[in-house]
Amino acid sequence: MIITSLAIAGGTMLVMAVILSFILGWANKKFKVEVDPKIESVLEVLPGVNCGGCGYLGCSDYAVAVVMDNDPVNKCTVGGEACAKAVAGIMGVEAGDIVKVFALVHCGAHTDDRLKSTAYRGEKRCTAAHQVAGVQGCTFGCLGFGDCVRACNYDAMHIRDGLATVNYNNCIGCGACEKVCPRAIIAITGFREDRIPAVTCSNRDKAKDSKSVCRRACVACRACVKKSDMFTVTDNLSRYDYAGYSEEHRESAAEALEKCPTKCIHFIGKPD
Fold first, then answer.
1. What stretches of 31-77 show up as alpha helix (H) in DSSP?
2. What range does the domain containing 78 cover?
3. In terms of Cα–Cα distance, which of 255, 248, 220 is closest to 234?
4. Confidence label for 176 from pLDDT (cuts 50, 70 and 90)
């Protein structure tokens, strides 16, 4: 009796398994979503690091966007020019203007340059310190607790004497540091040369106030504007046209650097 019951149960399970297999096989064919083979081809030439520098969660999402939505083929910061040309070849389009992007820290104040700083005994993270009033006199500058360092997977961010500093030999422009900076002083910027001029200040206070909290603060004196029309001053802060920079602007930028009274303009990038 027991053997008979077991046999019936086993037979029933076997029949059900066969039926379910048939149903699943039918459903797989019936509802199968056809994937454009170009997506796989694009995915194969992407570096696969899923850094998010292209603006998508990962390489697979970017590959879908390129093929299905005609997204630009030159967004992969890790793959660079070779990757862009390979993707362009698959899509049958031109790679377009390829500009390398890197992190740019808009603050140049080291520990000794910061005035009116107070002792901070809280959690050693920028996001925590940013919530505390009076941590340092400048409310625009780098806090120096290394949130960007922890976010970077490429050993490109370091804290040097209280200031976030980029190793441009390692930086791929993925944007992880930019996303975690609570004061938004890190910006992913196009570098049309290995070294470009940069305004390393974010303080938008008036000159008297900015000078009282930092030795390297921009004082909106417009000396840079007089030397180069690539500089503009808005909201008490000098700004540079990074997108328009080229070799022909190098000399005038160097002259502006020399005239800057607080030395908040520098050439940054890969070492010469």
1. 37-45, 59-69
2. 37-98
3. 220
4. very high
